[in-house]
Known about the structure:
By secondary structure, this protein is an alpha/beta fold. The protein has two domains: 5-124, NAD(P)-binding Rossmann-like Domain (Rossmann fold, 3-Layer(aba) Sandwich); 126-287 and 319-335, Dihydrodipicolinate Reductase, domain 2 (2-Layer Sandwich), CATH 3.30.360.10. Helix content is 30%, strand content 24%. It has helices spanning 14-25, 56-60, 78-87, 102-115, 129-139, 171-174, 177-180, 183-193, 298-311, 319-335, and strands at residues 5-10, 29-35, 52-53, 68-71, 91-94, 119-121, 146-154, 196-204, 217-224, 229-235, 244-251, 254-259, 265-271. The strands form two sheets. It has a seven-stranded mixed beta sheet, with helices on one face. Strands 3-2-1-4-5-6 form a six-stranded parallel beta sheet, sandwiched between helices.
Amino acid sequence: MKGKIKFAVVGCGHIGKRHAEMIGRNSEAVLVALIDTKSKDLLNIEQYDVPFFNSIESFLKSSVETDVVTIATPNGFHSAQAILSLEAGNHVVVEKPLALSRKDAEAVIFKSLNVSKQVFAVMQNRYSPPSVWIKKVIDQKLLGTIYSVHINSFWNRDERYYKKDSWHGNKELDGGTLFTQFSHFIDIMYWLFGDITNIKSVMRDFKHQNMTDFEDAGIVNFEFVNGGIGNFNFSTAVWDANMESSMTIIGEKGAVKIGGQYMNEVEYCHIENYEMPVLEATNPGNDYGAYKGSAQNHHFVVQNVIDVLHKNKAISTNALEGMKIVDIIERIYQSSD
């Protein structure tokens, strides 16, 4: 593929606008269309002088030439819109999660193989400096045999987030806390340590009965297929503000803890015969849709799409990995009492 990569963005909420902004900043990319069911006047997108459509169907029937369709709509629409875009001959970037069921994720992968187009699953937390660092530590087996992994994600999501006119909290469009809030951290776990089995979980809804259709807290215990045990503890019932997202790894030759709101700080590192390098500064935490925290890494996502299509490089998060995250979350929910 030669020339600038032509992107269209479906969904003009916070993350969709972030994708549009990052596309506009990249000299190898060009934004060619925006799509949203809301009126253009309500979306605050006047800075983008591109064609606007009120449905993905009308866009795909138009004469606008496109290489890549970026899908940043509510979770429940991801798989169907990805398949429509693939059928129209486009590569696809899909915000997390790829789908809300393994079956739907597999349908996306089947379609992409059938039409020979790429699917990029957005998991931008892989690009944070602590994530890049710990991936090297694990791949180089510096910790030796992994004994256990402990993930804690304790956030605040209240009426400021679960607004009455929002899709957040709706089971069919949102999917649940693990899909919308914490899938990034399940992705990091899978990326580092592989699949899990023997899952046992307890989930409760403590304070969101009038705001959501699903749980706001859970404790998940499991074993890794590759060896070792783990747990994932989460809550969106923390009062007023996010508390932390942390991952503690205990291995044969040392231990590491990555903390902060987004696993963005290395809080502990003690490994045999190892001196930890100084890492690049990490983005600050998020604040209800402000472009901070993990959202700031979307420029890496756009660049990866360009590198794959222009230079035949590897996809940073491929469709199979995106499907596995959906599969793990689905199995966690199925294991709850």
